[in-house]
Write a structure and sequence with these properties.
By secondary structure, this protein is mainly beta. About 15% of the residues lie in helices and about 40% in strands.
Length: about 230
């Protein structure tokens, strides 16, 4: 679950632009790598370098950079809490609408369901944010989640955070414990959700894990996150 107060995070930090993503786009052609964890030291705990933490609640940031073959990944755990990390950037997605990432869920929050306020927990959450003024009420945030209960394909507005719309990409135990590569056309999802074309820059990418509403536990991994041409 992305807390209502997360909107304050984007208000405070929307002006901080990570222009490296734009220059990386020029360096790598049609691919913009948001994070591949390769510059993070294996064994580093807590908030990874280059990311920021949330400014609400009591996050534990039970995170560690782990080796996965030749790659490095973010290993996340949650026990009756929620932790979100955020990377600001300014990126025109129209040339690179496809968001691609790797993830693996190990434990899902028991009874989690993105459709209900009282069970708004997910084993893995990947958010893209489009800040709009005033950000606290008009920012547009799309959350791609691995839900415990809500079926794949569900698109639902969060009952806890009015600026957030969830897209359920994975659901339940099918594929649990295995790596999956996911791709979403953010421009198409944006138009489906907001009934208009995407004509504003991406302002932030966030990664989160949450288990506090269900008072349970969750564990997951996140690999490379990038944008590319459809």
């Amino acid at each position: 679950m992305l807390s209502e107060t997360m909107k304050i995070l984007f208000v405070a930090r929307a002006a901080v632009l990570v222009l490296a993503a734009a220059s990386l786009a020029g360096a790598q052609g049609n691919t913009v790598v948001i994070e591949d964890w390769s510059k993070q030291p294996v064994g580093k705990t807590g908030i990874p370098n280059g990311w920021q933490g949330q400014n609400w609640g009591s996050p534990k940031y039970d995170f560690v950079i782990a080796a996965d073959g030749q790659a490095r990944v973010l290993h996340m755990k949650s026990s009756n809490e929620g932790s979100t990390i955020n990377k600001e950037l300014k990126l025109d997605l129209k040339p690179n609408c496809t968001l691609q990432w790797r993830w693996k869920a190990v434990t899902l929050p028991k009874g989690g369901d993105s459709r209900k306020k009282e069970t708004d927990d997910q084993g893995i959450q990947l958010y893209v944010t489009f800040p709009r003024f005033p950000q606290a009420v008009r920012s547009r945030i799309i959350g791609y989640v691995w839900d415990t209960t809500a079926p794949v394909g569900t698109i639902v507005k969060s009952e806890k955070a009015g600026t957030v719309t969830y897209v359920v990409v994975k659901s339940g135990t099918d594929g649990l414990g295995q790596w999956h590569t996911e791709s979403r056309n953010v421009c198409e999802d944006y138009k489906k959700i907001y009934s208009e074309d995407l004509n504003e820059p991406l302002g932030a990418v966030s990664v989160a894990i949450d288990s506090n509403d269900t008072k349970s536990t969750a564990e997951s991994y996140v690999g490379e996150i990038l944008f590319k041409k459809p």
